[in-house]
């Protein structure tokens, strides 16, 4: 978290300490990294489940609770990835709008 020292003057021409345009903010990048790790774990769990199901073909008549749970987890991960993508696009759009407003203010 960035804090401004009390009593320090804000320079009107000081550039904001925003990350580069293509750089993802740390919390968003951490969320994306977590999603990637969870996706990897999800894929490993799914493979493990398939191995057990193929070994225990006689139990195929039992309800596939684990498979349903993994499917729901997969859906949640997909939705989360899509949400992070939307957040990135929204952030880019807001930065563009902000830059346009700053240019208009300077022009006025």
What does this structure look like?
It is a single chain. By secondary structure, this protein is mostly helical. It has a domain at 26-55 and 64-107. The chain contains 2 helices and no strands. The longest helix is centred in the C-terminal third of the chain and has 43 residues, at 65-107. The two termini are 32 Å apart.
Short description:
The protein has helices at residues 26-55, 65-107.
Helix proportion of residues, in percent? 55-70%
Average pLDDT, rounded to a whole number, is 74
C-alpha geometry: rod-shaped
Question: Would you identify the regions where 5 or more consecutive residues have pLDDT less than 50?
Answer: 1-17
What is Rg?
23 Å
How much of the sequence is in beta strands?
A: under 5%
Top keywords for this entry?
single chain; 108 residues; mainly alpha; disordered N terminus
SSE topology sketch:
Blueprint: H1 26-55, H2 65-107
Helix pairs in contact: 1-2
């Amino acid at each position: 978290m960035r804090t401004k020292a009390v009593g320090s003057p804000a320079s009107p021409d000081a550039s904001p300490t925003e990350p580069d345009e293509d750089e993802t903010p740390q919390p968003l990048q951490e969320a994306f990294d977590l999603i990637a790790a969870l996706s990897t774990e999800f894929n490993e769990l799914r493979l493990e489940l398939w191995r057990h199901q193929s070994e225990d073909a006689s139990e195929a008549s039992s309800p596939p609770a684990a498979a349903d749970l993994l499917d729901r987890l997969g859906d949640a991960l997909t939705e989360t990835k899509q949400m992070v993508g939307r957040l990135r696009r929204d952030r880019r759009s807001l930065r563009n709008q902000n830059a346009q407003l700053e240019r208009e203010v300077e022009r006025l």
